[in-house]
Amino acid sequence: MPITVLFAVLAAALVHAGWNVLIKRSPDKLTMTLAVAVGAGVISALVLPLLPQPTAASWPYLAASVALQSVYYLLIARSYRLTDMSLAYPLMRGLAPLIVALASLPLTGEALASGQWLGVAGICGGILLLALVAGATAHRAGVVSALANAVVIAAYTLIDGLGARLSGAAPAYALYLAVGTAVVTAALVLSGGHRPTLSARTMALGLLGGGATTLSYGVALWAMTRAPVALVAALRETSILFALALSALLLGERVGRGRLVAAALVAAGVVTLKLG
Fold it and tell me: How far is it, in rounded angstroms, from Cα 153 to Cα 164?
């Protein structure tokens, strides 16, 4: 993996952790999640006319990913409403790259070297250890939501890895994805009977979070056109390290020895990925 891609994905991981903290801090997590999705769609719609357009071959992948990412947003809101971020986030982001790695060979033809497998295992093992440390505060329904979201994340990661390559224009692909997801997510929230109160402050934060998620995923899709999908997917999950720090600084969560050991294991996995 080129060094520029490595650092770009790490920066995207930091941004990703940031907008998840934004949702966790909100008293109305579904409304804030909707605001983030809509914010991402608005920003993307403004930028799209300036970019080369994706090829027609990528549109079926876009449609499938829009459906999955809309479910992803709803499951984020549910997971954070029911249980701690320190448990839900590791479960969602830790299991997904393992699923992607196992599915990459039959779906994309990308085989990982032994050293790269060690890197994937290190990252996933460290994130799952973080989840076990937080397990005392587990809420069963929240855990189920987080596990379901891990499967959704793995599915749209694989779909978008293929779709972005076919599109010939990964940035525009990511922006169309954000626009479509905003529309479908809003339709699902409203059809479910929820009536969000989108104040000026909520919408401002939604635009901030929407810009963050669009930038983060756009960088990831760009990286997938230059490195194996499984490696990018695994490296993105180092966002748990940034989420750990932000949870301590912004949410007041206590970071104990177990979480620090797990974070070190994730960091070791990142190094192994680079050297593998």
Answer: 16
Contact 61/188 with Cβ under 8 angstroms? no
Burial 153-189 (b: 16+ CB within 10 A, else e): bbbbbbbbbbbbbbbebbbbbbbbbbbbbbebbbebb
Q: Measuring CA to CA, how many Å separate 247 from each of 5, 21, 252? A: 26, 7, 6
- Over its C-alpha atoms, the chain yields an Rg (Å, rounded) of 17
**pLDDT the model gives residue 55:** 95
Q: Where are the alpha helices (DSSP H) in 48-169?
A: 59-82, 85-108, 114-133, 140-167
**Structure tokens, 94:** 């830790």
pLDDT, one tens digit per residue, over 83-131 is 888 778 888 887 787 787 777 777 767 777 777 788 888 888 888 887 7
Q: Is 40 helix (H, G, I), strand (E, B) or coil?
A: helix
DSSP for residue 55: P
Instruction: Give residue for tokens 């990703």.
Output: 16
| Of 218, 101, 240, residue with least CA distance to 170 | 218
Given a contact cutoff of 8 angstroms between Cβ atoms, the answer to whether 172 and 117 are in contact is no
Contact between residue 142 and residue 76 where contact means Cβ atoms under 8 Å apart: no
- Summarised one tens digit per residue, pLDDT across range 147-190 is 899 999 999 988 988 898 899 998 899 899 999 999 999 999 88
pTM of the model: 0.83
Mean pLDDT of 225-239: 79
Largest Cα separation within the chain, whole Å, is 51
Which residues have a Cβ under 8 Å from the Cβ of 54 and sit 6 or more positions away?
Answer: 62, 167, 168, 169, 172, 173, 176
CA–CA gap between residue 189 and residue 211 (Å, rounded): 21
**Pair of tokens at residue 105:** 């060979």
DSSP label at residue 113: P
